[in-house]
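Input sequence (50 aa), recorded before submission:
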Amino acid sequence: MRETTFLRRAEGVWSITHEHVSLPFHLEILQPWLPAGKDDRPVLTAGGGA
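Predicted structure, token format:
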């Protein structure tokens, strides 16, 4: 999962101006892909079979 936050400082006060969260999605099984560890990669095969 990745989150991006944009901040703006106006008159000495910080505020959040935009937030975005993205999650990898496994198109073959139509579900979010949640890796167990940082080195996990999805395994996809040609032709749609897992």
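Checked by second reader. The beta strands are 2-10, 13-22, 25-26, 31-32.
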